């Protein structure tokens, strides 16, 4: 069903090829290339909260939206991280991307098993924080490709320092989020077994 929230989600997916193209082409002057790529990425990221808000407010939560929303998030973040391995290799190493992708494969697998077991593995707070941190890490890393620091009216912003801190914080939150989902999954799986062990015999 193509409603307004789903259309916004699809627009996020549509932004990904433009983001990749801007960072891969050489037709833009230095500096403008990074700023344009960041603008596209931030615009796409804003739609992440907007589509969910509108779906809840308008009562338009659908199976298509439930499928598309996390897929759009993963495609957006994954494309950004993979591009950074080539674009800013001094900041984003391949093993860092593998940590993030490994977490995504893990959560996808846990949700598949949970669905077969008859329960849903809902989004966790750590997972929501992870998404925000990933956006900050990608944006700051793209900017750090061109600027080491910014001098804004005498206030120095270490762009590369912010990028490094955001990337390492992203890895920490990604790891914590993975364990958080594993714990939630294990609690749901183990609960029926515990209930089965403690059930009392029927009265006569």
Strand portion: under 5%
Q: Note the main sheet.
A: 2 strands, antiparallel
Question: What is the N-to-C order of secondary-structure elements (H for helix, E for strand)?
Answer: HHHHHEEH
**N- to C-terminal distance:** 53 Å
- Read across the widest sheet, the strand sequence of neighbours is 1-2
Q: Give me the secondary-structure category.
A: mainly alpha
What's the number of structural domains? 1
- Rg is 20 Å
Report the mean per-residue pLDDT as an integer. Answer: 81
Keywords:
204 residues, mainly alpha, two-stranded antiparallel ribbon, 6 helices, 2 strands, globular
Topology, please?
Blueprint: H1 4-24, H2 32-57, H3 63-87, H4 94-117, H5 125-144, E1 150-152, E2 155-157, H6 159-198
Antiparallel strand pairs: 1-2
Helix pairs in contact: 1-2, 1-3, 2-3, 2-5, 3-4, 3-5, 4-6, 5-6
Polypeptide structure, described:
This protein is mainly alpha-helical. The protein has a single domain (4-191), classed as CDP-alcohol phosphotransferase transmembrane (TM) domain (Four Helix Bundle (Hemerythrin (Met), subunit A), Up-down Bundle), CATH 1.20.120.1760. It is 76% helix and 3% strand. The chain has six helices and two strands; from the N terminus they run αααααββα. The protein has helices spanning 4-24, 32-57, 63-87, 94-117, 125-144, 159-198; strands at 150-152, 155-157. The chain has a two-stranded antiparallel ribbon with strand order 1-2. Helix 5 (125-144) packs antiparallel against helix 6 (159-198). The longest helix is centred in the last third of the chain and has 40 residues, at 159-198. The radius of gyration is 20 Å and the shape is globular. The termini are far apart. Mean pLDDT is 81; it is low at 194-204.
């Amino acid at each position: 069903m193509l409603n307004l929230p789903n259309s916004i989600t699809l627009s996020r997916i549509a932004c990904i090829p433009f983001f990749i193209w801007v960072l891969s082409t050489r037709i833009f002057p230095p500096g403008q290339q990074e700023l344009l790529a960041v603008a596209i990425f931030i615009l796409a990221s804003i739609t992440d909260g907007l589509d969910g808000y509108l779906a809840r407010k308008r009562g338009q939560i659908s199976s298509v939206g439930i499928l598309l929303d996390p897929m759009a998030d993963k495609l957006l973040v994954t494309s950004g991280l993979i591009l950074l391995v080539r674009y800013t290799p001094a900041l984003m190493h391949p093993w860092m991307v593998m940590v993030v992708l490994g977490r995504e494969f893990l959560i996808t697998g846990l949700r598949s098993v949970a669905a077969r077991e008859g329960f849903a593995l809902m989004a966790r707070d750590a997972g929501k924080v992870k998404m925000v941190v990933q956006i900050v890490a990608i944006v700051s890393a793209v900017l750090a490709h061109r600027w080491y620091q910014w001098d804004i009216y005498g206030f120095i912003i270490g762009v590369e320092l912010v990028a490094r801190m955001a990337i390492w914080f992203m890895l920490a939150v990604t790891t914590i989020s993975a364990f958080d989902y594993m714990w939630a999954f294990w609690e749901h799986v183990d609960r029926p077994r515990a209930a089965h062990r403690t059930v009392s015999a029927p009265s006569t």
